[in-house]
Automatic annotation (TrEMBL):
<dbReference type="InterPro" id="IPR047995">
    <property type="entry name" value="Choice_anch_K"/>
</dbReference>
<keyword id="KW-0812">Transmembrane</keyword>
<protein>
    <submittedName>
        <fullName>THxN family PEP-CTERM protein</fullName>
    </submittedName>
</protein>
<keyword id="KW-0732">Signal</keyword>
<keyword id="KW-0472">Membrane</keyword>
<feature type="transmembrane region" description="Helical">
    <location>
        <begin position="215"/>
        <end position="235"/>
    </location>
</feature>
<keyword id="KW-1133">Transmembrane helix</keyword>
<dbReference type="InterPro" id="IPR022472">
    <property type="entry name" value="VPLPA-CTERM"/>
</dbReference>
<feature type="signal peptide">
    <location>
        <begin position="1"/>
        <end position="15"/>
    </location>
</feature>
Length: 241
């Protein structure tokens, strides 16, 4: 997790808010699939793939950016955009896709300082052929003799939580704020039913740095500190003897 500091003067600005000025998504790469096409429609970044088995639609991903000029309070988790998976009967699916999300914002009322960053999200994809008897999730593609198709799996392989630390100078006071991209709210992933869709929200958070819970030290680290403390105690005893 990388963090860097930016120092600026905030003249009569209330730095306890963050305002998004722009959010955009771009499907930058993918693996597998046939007839794979990225596009943008009404600001929604789309990725479509596969030849429809019947007269219908391709499977695909969408990313709809959050509304620009939205202001968010400190310690508030808010949406950066909405991810959608569409599952339709096709021949060959992708195995992964990469989404680049670029967003800009300013702190408080300081509109002269606009910060822009890009986070990259990689999704692993399982497109189960509907003609198999048993789907990837163990379910049957036919139920009571009726073809129902197979659910497809979407898993966020790279779902980074990145941080930026901002040191804000307000008069004679200095405050440190942290902006986190907390990732998608889909946990380990989801299965999407044939001819249906699933959605997930990309989230962020703006807070005082001291409000962020510290990362716990691994057990090995505590053992190392305990060992060093023991060595120090032995040394003190030797000096006192």
């Amino acid at each position: 997790m990388a963090a860097f500091a930016v120092v600026f003067a905030a003249v009569s600005a209330n730095a306890s808010t963050l305002t998004l000025t722009n959010v955009a998504g771009n499907w930058s790469s993918w693996t597998g699939g046939v007839s794979v096409t990225p596009s943008t429609r009404d600001e929604v970044s789309e990725l479509r793939w596969g030849t429809p088995r019947f007269v219908g639609k391709q499977s695909g991903y969408d990313f709809k950016p959050a509304e620009a000029s939205s202001t968010h309070q400190e310690d508030e988790t808010f949406a950066l955009g909405l991810f959608t998976h569409h599952n339709f009967p096709i021949d060959v699916g992708i195995t992964s896709a990469t989404l680049d999300v670029t967003f800009s914002f300013y702190l408080g009322e300081d509109t002269d300082n606009i910060y822009t960053r890009t986070s990259q999200f990689v999704f692993s994809h399982i497109e189960t052929p509907n003609m198999v008897r048993v789907c990837s999730n163990g379910k049957r593609s036919r139920v009571n003799g009726v073809q129902v198709g197979c659910e497809d799996r979407v898993t966020p392989v790279t779902n980074p939580s990145k941080s930026e630390v901002f040191t804000v100078v307000e008069g004679n006071k200095t405050h440190k704020y942290m902006f986190d991209v907390t990732g998608f709210d889909i946990g380990d992933g989801f299965w999407t039913v044939e001819n249906q869709k699933n959605t997930a929200t990309l989230q962020g958070r703006f807070t005082y740095e001291e409000n962020v819970a510290p990362i716990p030290l691994p057990a090995a680290g505590w053992m190392l500190l305990a060992g060093l403390g023991g060595i120090g105690a032995v040394a003190r005893r030797r000096r006192n003897s």
